[in-house]
Design goal:
The protein is of the alpha/beta class and 221 residues long. It has two domains: 63 residues, Alpha-Beta Plaits (2-Layer Sandwich); 141 residues, Rossmann fold, CATH 3.40.50. The chain is 19% helix and 25% strand. The protein is built from five helices and eleven strands. A five-stranded mixed β-sheet has the order 8-7-9-10-11. Strands 1-4 form a two-stranded antiparallel sheet. A hairpin with a 5-residue loop joins strand 10 and strand 11. Helix 4 packs across helix 5. It is elongated and about 60 Å long. The model has no long low-confidence stretch (mean pLDDT 85).
Length: 221
């Protein structure tokens, strides 16, 4: 597999720092008066930093990925409960505890996954199931993806296997829609468990198109 990554021409770099300021993933820092790519893992290869460089020192290069570089991973951030806005009585508050949640962007080495109960959900579930935050997400670390639209599921298997093997995951809850393509979610998780040589407790919820729970396997924590 190949990916794009930022390339820095130090001869052209003036150390102005504009590229570091524009890199929301924290992949670029100024060290010794020059821009440095300090985290290939966090570089998403989208090139949002390119227009910020006045000296033309930045470009995109394509290269083969190496093991555990996790292409398209983003810098993880934890969301502290006290930082959430207070909700008036009767309002449903957010239960999201970390970012990013897209599996393609998530870094399986992020500390937020240590000893976690995982909720792995298909992209559409949160839109169909009205009480997603209170009934499914509370107390869990969320990862989402679409097993049909996302063609490169091998990256997902690799990332989940790394999570299962290295992060002492306590449980895995799956939530997906009733449409046939969504059942690929369970297959990917099962393949990741096999690769990681783990046997984690897995529960599964199936959500109908009108937002009801139509199927259940195992006990969701």
């Amino acid at each position: 597999m190949r990916r794009k990554i930022i390339k820095i021409d130090e001869a052209k770099c003036t150390g102005c720092g504009l590229c570091a300021a524009s890199c929301h993933e924290g992949a670029i820092k100024i060290i010794g008066g020059k821009a440095k790519l300090v985290s290939e893992t966090y570089c998403d290869g989208l090139g949002a930093c390119l227009p910020s460089c006045p000296s033309g020192a930045l470009s995109l290069a394509e290269r083969a990925d190496v093991s555990r570089s996790y292409p398209h991973s983003a810098r993880a951030a934890e969301i502290k409960p006290e930082k959430r806005a207070q909700n008036p009585a009767g309002k449903i508050g957010s239960e999201l505890s970390h970012w990013p949640v897209q599996l393609k962007l998530a870094n399986p080495d992020a500390p937020c996954f240590d000893n976690a109960d995982l909720l792995i959900a298909a992209d559409c579930v949160a839109f169909a199931f009205a009480d997603f935050h209170r009934k499914l997400l509370r107390g869990k670390k969320l990862l989402i993806f679409c097993p049909k639209l996302d063609g490169d599921t091998e990256v997902y298997v690799e990332k989940l296997a790394a999570l299962f093997k290295n992060k002492s995951i306590k449980s895995v809850s799956l939530a997906h829609m009733e449409v046939p393509c969504c059942f690929g979610l369970a297959r990917i998780v099962a393949e990741a468990q096999t690769r990681a040589a783990t046997n984690l407790p897995v529960s599964e919820l199936v959500i109908s198109l009108d937002g009801e729970i139509t199927g259940k396997k195992g006990e969701m924590k």
